[in-house]
């Protein structure tokens, strides 16, 4: 029994000295950080705004339509590409400050993904028309000339002494 | 008062409050980042960011507040059920027709597609 208690102690101290396991097992569980239910009262709204480091005026939860985001704030979508590269960010690699609430679609609007605030030189329909016009046009040309083959005009090959048998493969 | 600024009084107050909070968090971050006893706390060297954890926890806990609604059903149909069943149907019919042709001898062996898989 004493041995058992000792080995339990050993594993506990090993856990204590292993930073990765200590952080993952003993701290920062998702259950402690998951969003609460959609805020119904004014007090709940203020508490949620404080939790997400927002002012109560700017806090706006996602509509309670069953999409399951609870009280997570509906933040303005600003892509990484549209954020100021010269601002002294706490995390320059994410263009993000410490404890700044993250957009619910952060995975989409990261710097290496889609830029929702892109300032395009021309309207979007122009680019779609350009792309589809090229692809459909190339396909039309391909399918037309796949059916209508064209060749250079040729005459039959001309050899000297045509019609004369020089050699046969028959046995004599 | 607000005539001095190009924003309304309430916007100005909101921006000032945000700047104050940002300053507080920046100081907190620098304090945590430069804490010489941080490694002794056994949590690793990086500063723990609660907002990042809240984002991750929200992403994996959406099932908790999920409610089946017509909008959710439409999204699931449009992006999961219809594409998968349509492509399954198209693939199954085309491969079955090709197999039927091969087995009834309508296609020569040399003209078969996907001969080696």
Automatic annotation (TrEMBL), chain A:
Keywords: Membrane, Transmembrane, Transmembrane helix. It holds the Pfam family NDUF_B8. The lineage of its organism: Eukaryota, Metazoa, Ecdysozoa, Arthropoda, Hexapoda. It comes from the Eukaryota. GO terms for cellular component: mitochondrion. This is NADH dehydrogenase [ubiquinone] 1 beta subcomplex subunit 8, mitochondrial. The chain crosses the membrane at residues 124-145.
Automatic annotation (TrEMBL), chain B:
It is a single-pass membrane protein. Keywords: Electron transport, Membrane, Mitochondrion, Mitochondrion inner membrane, Respiratory chain, Transmembrane, Transmembrane helix, Transport. Its main location: mitochondrion. The keyword Coiled coil does not apply. The keyword Oxidoreductase does not apply. Pfam families: NDUF_B4. One of its GO terms (cellular component) is mitochondrial inner membrane. The chain crosses the membrane at residues 73-91. It comes from the Eukaryota. It is found in: Mitochondrion inner membrane. Belongs to the complex I NDUFB4 subunit family. PANTHER family: NADH DEHYDROGENASE [UBIQUINONE] 1 BETA SUBCOMPLEX SUBUNIT 4 (PTHR15469:SF0), NADH-UBIQUINONE OXIDOREDUCTASE B15 SUBUNIT (PTHR15469). This is NADH dehydrogenase [ubiquinone] 1 beta subcomplex subunit 4.
